[in-house]
Amino acid sequence: MKDDFLKIKDEYLWDPKSAAAIRDPDITEIAALERSLTRFRAPGAESLPLPEAVWVDRGWQTARPSTWRESLAIAAVLVLAVGGVWLSLGRKYIGDGTGWQGARIAGQPNVDSEPVAAKFRLRTGQILETDDASRARIDVGNIGEVEVGTDSQVRLLEAQAESGSLGLEHGTITALIWAPPRRFTVRMATATAVDLGCEYTLHVDADGNGWMRVSIGWVAFEKDGQESFVPVDAMALIRQGARPGTPFYEDASPAFRSALEEIDFGAVGPSEVEERKTALATLLEQARKRDAITLWHLLGRTDGTELAQVYDDLAKLVPPPSGVTRNGILAGDRHMRDTWWDALGLRDTGWWRGWKRDFPGR
After folding, report:
1. How far is 279 from 120, CA to CA, in rounded Å?
2. Contact of 109 with 129, CB cutoff 8 Å
3. Half-sphere exposure of 96 (CA within 13 A, CB side)
4. Are 291 and 235 spatial neighbours (Cβ–Cβ below 8 Å)?
5. What per-residue confidence (pLDDT) applies to 227?
6. Is 309 left (phi over 0), alpha (psi -120 to 50) or beta?
7. What is the C-alpha to C-alpha distance for residues 68 and 120, in angstroms, rounded to an integer?
8. Which domains are present in the chain?
9. Which of 1, 20, 240, 260 is the most buried (most CB within 10 A)?
10. What angle do CA 292, 230, 356 make, to 5 degrees?
11. What pLDDT does residue 198 have?
């Protein structure tokens, strides 16, 4: 018992500076969440310094599966942060349906082509625009904030105190939302991003192509009934005129990512059949157990021989649970697909499918 207690004391939440905590690879997301919430700390509140090891850019090679210990730690950090966030709400403009408060971060952003002051109000229907030297922040009622990067254009579509929506015309935004799921959406020509309690970055160029990267929590992508559920450390590509890209983890091999892009967005026709076959074979060969999330999404995006191949390789990585059959999956049984998702060790399907019941506009 004493040894177990000493071991626990060496973990991150007890002492972030301990040698064991600094070596622990499971603290990356905890530290990222703490950095995101630091600016909401109550005046006078002390914060423990983060281990130097977690301040480096996570890049393409440091993503890893979450663990039960990480989930517990994140919950603890959220509870500790509530006091600071709650105190900060009194200093925020509370959306009333007509607009949200904004602040200039750098350079000279414009609202409807007019320069903004250091603090400004963005009204529903107005467009906030930045150039290559300017950035701005939008307070999302009292549930979060969005940083608008350089060379970006966003339109405020809805502005309530506890919910709202932005339209991303082009550029880059980073959203940090601490509200319950489904309260905040970002609409693009290609898809709608639905917040499920998270921090994420969206980039769309002038042609409607781009990507989404999730750094905390989950984001749902939806268009015309096509769903993508993107977890922390994963991405999804955006292409004009196409369905939302299939989610993939950032540390997937370059060959895996390239093959997935061909499957998602490659031309479809008699002359491209061989390219697609090669891409699918490469993707399945490169898939790790961690990439089961990508293969699971492909169960709903392939058919015929392709679907059978995806089923067989996913079954090798994560055996289908009781009640999930090959014939059922090949027949498109959605309940079986959802049951298999639950075996991946991610959030339960009952949690993330629930967002559709309250999806704005439905």
Report:
1. 49
2. yes
3. 4
4. no
5. 81
6. alpha
7. 42
8. 2-89 (no CATH), 94-252 (2.60.120.1440)
9. 260
10. 115
11. 85
Contact 165, 158 (CB under 8 A): yes
| 297: its two tokens | 């999404």
C-alpha closest to that of 185 among 165, 158, 212: 165
Over 50: is that where the pLDDT of 162 sits?
A: yes
**pLDDT tens digits for range 256-274:** 999 999 999 987 777 788 9
Q: What is the pTM of this model?
A: 0.74
Q: What is the pLDDT of residues 218-229, one digit of tens each?
A: 899 888 878 889
For residue 351, the model assigns a pLDDT of 58
The alpha carbons of the chain give a radius of gyration, in whole angstroms, of: 22
Q: What SS3 state is found at 116?
A: coil
User: Closest by alpha carbon to 259, among 192, 219, 213, 309?
Assistant: 309
Spell out the residues 6+ positions from residue 206 whose beta carbon is closer than 8 angstroms to its own.
Answer: 170
